[in-house]
Structures are given as C-alpha cells and as structure tokens.
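INPUT
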Amino acid sequence: MAHEHHGHDHPHPFQPDHPEPTSYYELLGMALNELLIEKGVYTAGDMRAMIEQLEAVSPETHGAKVVARAWVDPDFKAALLRDGAAAVSSLGLDPGYTELTALENTPRLHNVVVCTLCSCYPRSLLGRPPAWYKSASYRSRLVREPRKVLAEFGTTVPDDVEVRVHDSTAELRYVVVPMRPEGTEGWSEEDLATLVTRDSMIGVARAKATR
Amino acid sequence: MPHDTQGRIGPQDLGGLDGDSVDPSEHDLAQWERMVDAMTRLMYREKIFGDAAQLREGIEALGPDVYQRLSYFERWAASSARKCVMEGLVTQEELDERIAQIRERGRDGA
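OUTPUT
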C-alpha cells in the first residue's frame, strides 16, 4: 500500500535514522504536537489514546452493525431514518458530534454521499475516509456526473432508478443504508453485517451479493 | 461569501468541476498523518476548534496556490498551527524554533 501522494513527492514518516527530506508542514504538525503537550493542552497519553481510538473505528465494527440492525428491525430502521444520531446512540455506538442523516436505498432510489468542499464523513461509523473520497476528482465530478462516477466503481444504476447525491457539511453527515441483498431471509444480524461494506454505506457500491 | 470569476467560493469549492477518473485504490496513512488526525480531534475536545468548519476555515485561508500544493494532512497541520497561534497557545517563533530542533534531531540521528 502506498502512502498518500497528492501530485508531489511526499515525504515518508519522519524517521531520525533515515535522512529523507521532511516537508515543512509535516514538521509543523510535529512541532505543534510537541508544544501542545509541553504546555499541558493535552498529554502524550491523550495522543496515544486518541490515535488508538481513531484506529478502532471501522465500517465493519460500527457502520455495518447499524445497517444490519436496520435490515432486521423495521422499528429501528424507522428511528434511524428519523434521527440518525439518536438511533445510533441507542445501539451504544458513538454517533459523532454532528447531525447524522441515514439515507435508505430502494429499488427506485440510489443515494450516494460526497463532501465537495473538503472531506466531511461519518467517521464515528466508518472510520477514516478512503483517499478517493478526499480526492479532487471524486469531489468535483460526483455532483455533475454521478452515474459515470458510480460506473467507475463498478456500480451501474439503471436509468429508471433515481440517483440522489448528498453533499455533507461540517454540521451534517450522511450514511447510506444499502438495500438488503436478495436471498438473505432468515440470516442473523451478525451474518448480515458481513455483507455491509464501507463503499455500500458511502453509496458507491451495493451491499455484497450472497452469491 | 465572495465568489471568484467562475462562481466558486475558493479553491476548495470543487463541486461540478471537471476532473480525472476516480482512482479507487486504498492508501495507508503515514505515522505523522495519524498524529495530525488525532491532534485535530484533541483540539476539538479542548474547544480550540469549535467545529470542523473552523478547521476548514484555516485550510481555505491558505490561498489557492498553497492549497493545491499541500497534501491532505499537511493542510490540516497548517490550519491547526494557525489556529493555535491565533488563540495565543503557541507563537510562530516557538514553532519555528521547534521545527529547527526537530530537523537537527533528524540530522543527528538522535
């Protein structure tokens, strides 16, 4: 796996025994972190704990549970669509610090999420956004030619299905509830959750097919 | 909000522009990027950043040239440092001095 490259030769993690050039802004981040710790704004332990906390959130362990519950429990689904944050909290999961709107895909409607201005993302459910979600090409093109962008992800949406693009903001995040795959009647919630991928909750893909 | 000649509010305003096809490959983060990510979270917790809009404000203040040139978490680092200087938590001199020290440490292999 490559590190994030954004059109310029980007330095690798700063390693004192490895004399690679290190960018000014990378050093700026490191300097700021050291100073904030020294000034007691937060501790080195807070930093370690926060890194671990951010690593611990994943689409599989968080978002997929919410979707699987919505698939098996109509009352929960209704509550989720009404007030996403409250419904997520009721499962004992962190809803994040913004409003959360769940968008239900149906045979007539396909929802897909973007943040055209930056990279707003339902991180408490899906963890860190993938690099492509933050990319200029996804942000610029999805609102203009969503079907074409979806096709690039291998998702062909028939012409008679409406595609709705939702632009996230600093105060409002979206998560897509994909359609429950056919042939999953009687499946347990745990098994259903394995079909719910990150991309299906962003809306660039469908939930995994059973076969 | 002022708009430029293309009706955009700034370099971050990408919605509707043309672009290349989306590269869907996965990317791993470098350790310093994980640190910057966590640092902004801690800044929210400590109410240094009121919300994500304030983080973005600092990114937009970079101007189009710097915005285009920097990587994602470099922008976050720049915005975080700007905010901490504005709030009087650190000074630019302290940051510059520390950056020089970190460079020195790297060079010494310490």
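end of record. The longest helix of chain A spans residues 24-38.
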